[in-house]
Specification:
The longest helix is centred in the middle third of the chain and has 24 residues, at 261-284. The chain contains 17 helices and 22 strands. The chain is of the alpha+beta class. It is globular and about 95 Å long. A hairpin with a 2-residue loop joins strand 14 (344-354) and strand 15 (357-365). It starts with 14 loop residues before the first strand and ends with a strand.
Length: 542
């Protein structure tokens, strides 16, 4: 107020929360997101059914899928969704763990805030604790040799799959995941690299999960373009063409005036001749299979069929790239440039009927650096969930090969970190030690949640794991099926080191960012046409 006159700084209708009120609302929103996915953690976790505005149903217990499907409004809650997305894009698994940990870090921080500990002190303590936690993880991690330790890779895949609804077929699926990843491992600068994008997942409803299989080659979800073409081509020489096998229309508007019927005949004959030349060009290189990214004219299809060439049109760009890797062919952008050297090779290309659809299988590729997995299942929802589960399994196996280090699951690593962090806190001193102790409490949410979801008493379970770790049994955790405290290494509950490290990184970053916000200004959305942007949030840092 100035001389009784109010001064308006923010637009009318703008909502503003400051200080403790803003922190409380942000923490509550983030905790709500963590709580939403918490019941899905572990082999005994439950699934969620998500129904969107169109009535489409998704049934899953994959943390990131749940959070992507939920339409989140609150900005702090959106940050927690970002945690899951980051975890998914970086390491492919551990999304629920990261979100639950982030929510628990904020819950513990809230109690410190009520004791008048300053937010920046808490964030400093959390940063120190996160660095120490990662150090501890590196100490307790075991090194593996992917070429010799196939059993360990199978256990890693099985651990990832055991918390999904596909766990009934985890032996089959973990074998497929390991074989698929080992096929595409490449060495760069003396280090192993795995690009999971080189594994193509093709879903087809029907059959059972047991019909899922690895194809050493490619599956193209297209059929041959002409019924007169051969169904099976052995010793296939494959041309990949990114150009239409059609008569090119002129760039400019052109009218053709025809005065007598012979001209029409000559016109059509010329068109036919051009298409025949295109096919002759392909035939002349020795190709007997053509994958075309663009369209193929009806007349060209007829000539290709007469020449005994198997052709597929409108193949996806991503599939063309994988075909090039699998068969050794080069994608040619101009038909005139096609030579016999650009052709790829496969033992067999054939059309098979899977369910109601016809698909093209490219089999027996030499040194395939791209492979396919054909996923089958009783219903659409089952197939979708197996795809998500298999995707996670492929990523963790790939990460284990790249890292060469693994840690044990079942809450064993979390309890070991908590135990050592409490010892570390005493050596730090100052108020930061309060935050480090709270970080240790927060990380124990993992074994507690595993126990709760398995219907066990979380306090008893935690006490028993702590007792085992005090006795130096570093790899002991909870067997959720029996309720016993067992050696997770012997039980085969193993995950790559980077999954745990990334979960700590992203959960800590999100918690620290949310704790530092003390002012939330929500601009009121203007009416359409006035250039307003609804829900434009600004934040002020301390």
């Amino acid at each position: 107020m100035l001389a009784g006159q109010p001064i308006l700084i923010l637009k009318e209708g703008t909502r503003r929360e400051t200080g403790r009120e803003a922190m409380r609302s942000n923490i509550a929103a983030a905790k709500a997101i963590a709580e939403a996915v918490r019941s899905t953690l572990g082999p005994r976790g439950m699934d969620k059914m998500l129904v969107d505005s169109l009535g489409d149903v998704v049934i899953t217990n994959d943390g990131v899928t749940i959070l992507k499907e939920i339409d989140v409004e609150h900005p702090a809650a959106k940050m927690m969704v970002e945690v899951a997305k980051t975890q998914d894009s970086e390491v492919g698994d551990g999304t629920t763990t990261a979100v639950v940990l982030g929510g628990e870090l904020l819950k513990q921080a809230e109690e410190l805030l009520e004791q008048n500990v300053h937010p920046t002190v808490i964030t400093e303590g959390y940063r120190l604790a996160a660095e120490k936690a990662k150090e501890i993880m590196h100490e307790v991690a075991k090194e593996i040799d992917p070429e010799k330790d196939r059993d360990v890779l199978l256990k890693i895949a099985a651990t990832s799959l055991s918390s999904k609804s596909a766990s009934a077929a985890k032996e089959l699926l973990s074998g497929i995941a390991v074989d698929a990843v080992l096929k595409i491992v490449e060495e760069q600068d003396g280090r192993k690299r795995v690009d999971v994008d080189n594994i193509q997942l093709v879903k087809k409803q029907g059959g059972s999960i047991d019909d899922t299989k690895l194809i050493e080659g490619m599956i193209i979800d297209k059929e041959k373009v002409h019924p007169g073409m051969p169904t099976v081509v052995k010793d296939a020489k494959i041309a990949l063409i990114n150009a239409p096998l059609e008569i090119k229309k002129p760039e400019i508007d052109a009218n053709i005036q025809i005065r007598d019927p012979n001209m029409i005949h000559a016109f059509l004959e010329e068109e036919e001749k051009m298409l025949r030349e295109m096919v002759e060009k392909i035939k002349g290189t020795g190709a007997n299979v053509v994958f075309c990214q663009k369209g193929i004219d009806d007349m060209a299809q007829h000539f290709l069929a007469k020449a005994g060439i198997y052709a597929v049109r409108r193949v996806k760009k991503s599939d063309m790239e994988k075909l090039a890797k699998a068969t050794g062919a080069k994608v040619v952008n101009n038909l005139d440039d096609l030579t016999s050297e650009d052709l790829g090779h496969a033992e067999k290309v054939e059309e098979r009927k899977i369910g109601d659809d016809h698909m093209t299988f490219v089999l027996g590729c030499k040194n395939p650096k791209a492979v396919s997995v054909l996923i089958r299942g009783g219903t659409e929802h089952v197939v979708d969930e197996i795809e998500r589960s298999l995707n996670d399994a492929l990523h963790v196996v790939a990460k284990a090969i790249e890292d060469g280090k693994v840690v044990t699951g079942g809450g064993s690593t979390a309890v070991e970190i908590a135990l050592r962090l409490r010892e570390y806190a005493a050596s730090v001193g100052g108020r930061q030690q309060l935050a480090i102790e709270r970080f240790a409490d927060a990380i124990e949410i993992i074994p507690r949640t595993l126990a709760e979801n398995a219907g066990l008493d979380p306090i008893d379970v935690l006490i028993n794991i702590r007792k085992a770790h005090k006795e130096g049994k570093v790899h002991h955790g909870i067997n959720v099926f029996t309720g016993e405290i067992e050696d997770m290494w012997e039980l085969g509950v193993i995950e790559p080191l980077s999954v745990g490290v990334q979960a700590i990184n992203s959960a800590t970053d999100a918690a620290v960012m949310i704790l530092r916000i003390d002012d939330v200004i929500a601009a009121k959305g203007e009416e359409k046409g006035k250039g307003g942007d609804k829900g434009d949030f600004g934040t002020d840092e301390e």
